[in-house]
Amino acid sequence: MSQTVSRADFDQFMVPNYAPADYIPVRGEGARLWDQQGREYVDFAGGIAVNALGHAHPALVKALTEQAQKLWHVSNTLTNEPALRLARKLVNATFADRVFFCNSGAEANEAAFKLARKWAIDTAGADKHEIISTTNSFHGRTFFTVTVGGQPKYSDGFGPRPQGVTHIPYNDLAALKAAISDKTAAVVIEPVQGEGGVLPATADYLKGVRELCDQHKALLVFDEVQTGVGRSGSLYAYMEYGVTPDILTSAKSLGGGFPIGAMLTTEAVAQHFAVGTHGSTYGGNPLACAVAEAVIDVVNTPEVLAGIRAKHERFVSRLTAMGDKTGAFQQVRGMGLLIGAVLAEPYKGRAKDFMTAAAKAGVMVLQAGPDVVRFAPSLVIADADIDEGLDRFEQAVNEVAGR
To answer: What does the alpha-carbon distance between residue 378 and residue 317 come to, in Å, rounded to a whole number?
Structure first.
């Protein structure tokens, strides 16, 4: 028998590491959500860039239900058909030769950082173990990934951190030149910093990072957990820049809402994860891989990718006009359907206020730090939903701006 639950149950029963909104969504369709009271929201948050095809997309529902009637789980002493099909599609669509499946972006990054160190130590000895990351980066919440991430607020308070991790400013090639050495195992970069403010890398920066990694025989790791699977307007953002990494991590949009992560790499690097070196009990789960295969089949088409670029322009032009009219935003930036409205000086630190006002107006948005309102909607969101959601968001902006 089901029991009625409310937001108050969170405060009574859940570990208090989150502070969720005061409403509970119960149903979704496309780019719309409805809460317990039947109130409708336009979803520009996308489960934090996860719901690549919105809610209850027919292709994903079909893939999940068909697979659920066949095979749910086997241990990694066996393989399975959905995992092999998905791996083949990812290899055929990218630079990669090999794929490792796990359950989340943090796990994909954990695998990437472990593999980078294993490769470096195997090929050059124990001294070659250092990892260089950037300030304000975000790579997950395991202890290793939160240490590589460049936001101390997430890593402070847990005791001694893993050693050999250095942080330098993002988009600053001179800082990398000063930090990199022959002891560097890997340089870890988000092509667009997501949690750090929806800040894209410059093309010259990423090309320079690639050259420095080559000079010092270090691996280049792209964290594409947030930018991957069409979010940028290409299947992966590295394709936008023409800069190829040695390791790439993917999650979020990959499963369209079903938990899955993947680490993609080259043949030469992959061989350093021999049998028994790393693993994941649920990694390559048939249900997850069947859904992710359906996501790739829908997203990796010229029509959908071109649509993402067009929708980017629709968002940016309207948000820019809002900023000009109200003075709330000093810049609108991002790539594809990962967009950040950077708050102007009088509104600095108030991203949460915009998020709260937006929910009140019937549209869900995100923040990326205290100074940026973030948008990460479905990649196939209809133009009519974009317009309706932006109408509602404009009401929220006017409310916060006191207009």
So the answer is: 18
Query: Does residue 1 surpass a pLDDT of 60?
Result: no
Count of the separate structural domains present in the chain: 2
Instruction: List the catalytic residues.
Output: 138, 223, 252
Strand partners, 166: 132
Domain end, chosen from 245, 280, 299, is at 299
User: Would the annotation count 141 as a binding residue?
Assistant: yes
2 domain residue, yes or no: no
Model's pTM, two decimal places?
0.95
To the question of whether residue 105 is assigned a binding role by annotation, the answer is yes
pLDDT tens digits for range 68-101: 999 999 998 999 999 999 999 999 999 999 999 9
Q: Two tokens at 87? A: 């791996």
Is 281 annotated to bind ligand? yes
Count Cβ atoms below 10 Å from residue 1 Cβ, excluding itself.
2
Domain boundary among 240, 270, 299: 299
Query: Residue 274 belongs to what domain range?
Result: 71-299
The C-alpha angle with vertex 8 and arms to 2 and 12, in degrees rounded to 5, equals: 90
